[in-house]
Amino acid sequence: MVQVTGLYAALFALLYMGLAVRIIAVRKRDRVSVGDGASRELERRIRMHGNAAEYGPLILLLMALCEMQATSAYVIHGLGIALIVGRLLHAFGLAPGDRNLKARMAGMFLTFSCLAITALILLYKGIVGGI
Q1: Residue 21's closest CA among 54, 94, 29, 129?
Q2: For residue 54, how many other CB atoms are within 10 A of its CB?
Q3: End-to-end CA distance of the chain, in Å?
Q4: Would the pTM of this model clear 0.85, i.e. be above it?
């Protein structure tokens, strides 16, 4: 069972939907059905959503594999919190208007940390468990 990862998958899904709704709102307002219509705001919102799609599912899969291999629930919670906070910070950093580069960088740091930590846990468990 992957109950802890399931919690963060649900939170991520809500975040992902929220990012999509923000794209839809600008598309409707600016009457852009495909692409970004040369709108910087729409381009940024598409990237917020795209970046979440690029990293979130892979990290959630790796978290689930870690959880299935009896990684501490505390570690899984830490990874899940870092994933959600990281994606929120990254989106904030890409927000139209006053951009916050530090938030974007912190978001990517948290996201990459989750990716690296889950990969290292699985490598360790694969090597130790395979001996």
Answers
A1: 29
A2: 11
A3: 25
A4: yes
